[in-house]
TrEMBL record:
InterPro entries reported for this sequence: ICL/PEPM, Pyrv/PenolPyrv_kinase-like_dom, Pyrv_kinase-like_dom_sf
Molecular functions per Gene Ontology: catalytic activity
Organism: Streptomyces longispororuber
PANTHER family in the record: CARBOXYPHOSPHONOENOLPYRUVATE PHOSPHONOMUTASE-LIKE PROTEIN (AFU_ORTHOLOGUE AFUA_5G07230), PHOSPHOENOLPYRUVATE CARBOXYLASE
UniProt name for this protein: Isocitrate lyase/phosphoenolpyruvate mutase family protein
Entry superkingdom: Bacteria
One of the Pfam families matching this protein, by short name: PEP_mutase
Length: 253
């Protein structure tokens, strides 16, 4: 399954209207849109507010909560409860920390168990940043996803892995779904499915592409371009917001 990642209500609503049955959020996109840095644990309120709105869209919504926005397990559990109450069906919980290290395996497993005990119906996708943080690569990633699976994670996410042999070995070693990050120039979603991957996320790619496209269009005008090709109309953009207002009386709070 391809899981596109949204960063605000409009992007999530547009993806839902395009027919995607499940949509995730991107922590980078949410943080950048709020003028904050990603992976620093500073966007709890922005993430929760967005989740409360888009959970009402006609799609399954899973939310990237970084490391839980707190060093205290109780706070992470409270967040999970709030998200589930809002209608969110899943969360992505990572072991990377703001200082560039990985959380201790035992501590991360304890956090996974605490969240699952409190909100058993919430799909917990346990992410390891062993590749992204250059912290042990394939062996460390394999050790961690195995431990997270045993701790009760419903799925595991290994962003940064691109080697097809490693991906196939990871998928074969697990009994829960393996999630990887789509990388332009890397294996296609179809190829990844053939390797045993169950979920392919776009991560921050859509957000970064949208920002770059905005800059490219503006620069094109300076070069004499008449405008981009097929774009969302004003009326269509208004309709995305109007649908949201109909779903949430008085708008988001």
């Amino acid at each position: 399954m391809l899981l596109p990642n949204a960063w605000d209500h409009a992007s999530a609503a547009a993806l839902a209207r395009a027919g995607f049955p499940a949509i995730g959020t991107t922590s980078l996109g949410v943080a950048a849109a709020a003028g904050k840095a990603d992976a620093t644990g500073s966007t709890r309120q922005e993430t929760l507010r967005l989740a409360r709105g888009i959970a009402r869209l006609p799609a399954l919504i899973t939310v990237d909560v970084e490391g839980g926005f707190s060093d205290h397990p109780g706070d992470v559990v409270d967040l999970a409860r709030d998200l589930a109450a809002a209608g969110v069906v899943g969360v992505n919980l990572e072991d990377g920390r703001p200082d560039g290290t990985l959380a201790a395996v035992e501590a991360q497993c304890a956090l996974i168990r605490a969240v699952k005990a409190a909100v058993p119906a919430l799909f917990l996708n346990a992410r390891t940043d062993a590749y992204w943080l250059d912290a042990g690569g394939a062996p460390e990633a394999a050790r961690r996803v195995t431990a997270y699976q045993e701790a009760g994670a419903d799925g595991v996410f290994v962003p940064g892995v691109r080697d097809e042999t490693v991906i196939a070995e990871l998928a074969a070693s697990l009994t829960v779904p393996l999630n990887v990050l789509y990388a332009p120039g890397g294996p296609t979603p179809e190829r990844l499915a053939g390797l045993g991957v169950r979920r392919v996320s776009t991560g921050s790619l859509l957000f970064r592409a949208a920002v770059q496209q905005a800059v490219d269009v503006a620069q094109g005008f300076l070069r004499g371009a008449t405008g981009p090709g097929d774009v969302l109309s004003y009326a269509d953009a208004q309709d995305l917001a109007a649908a949201y207002e109909r779903q949430v009386p008085g708008g988001a709070r």
